[in-house]
Amino acid sequence: MALQQASLDSAARSMVEGPALQFLSAAEPVLRNQVPAEKRAAVAKQLESEARKYADELNPVVRKRAQELAQSQMLPAVEEKYTEDDLRQLLAFYESPVYKKMQQIQSPIEQTLGRKLVADVQPTVEAKVKTLHATMAKILSAAPTPTPPGGASGPAGNGLQPQGAMKLGGPSATKP
Question: The whole model's pTM is what?
């Protein structure tokens, strides 16, 4: 199980941080085009702070759930497929035939864990993503919009739209 910890942590981190990075990326043109130059650094810092708070709050939740699922789903599957002697050989001899056996069956177990993790935490992550989006949009809306040359006003809205789909469960969610 300890051998899989880095993979679990990476999947959890990607699931949480991906949406925040998308929002920050989407905010860049808004900052450039709608926030006065003298306020851009402060607004950018505020957006980054909100994204950091979101990730700091949600990363432990998703990481903990990944560990719980690994214990409840992965460990029994491993125990079912390997004998105690097999496990000793795995720890001692990564080049052994048992190691090759593990390589063949490990991926489907991890994929199952990833699917279960996404199903379990998706509502929580999506709710937090919506809150983060609303907070960032509010920050950007509060920033004065510069008047474009010629005095025409810009498009309505804050322009904060993430690039690409915000769905969980893509390839990086199950296999970093």
Answer: 0.54
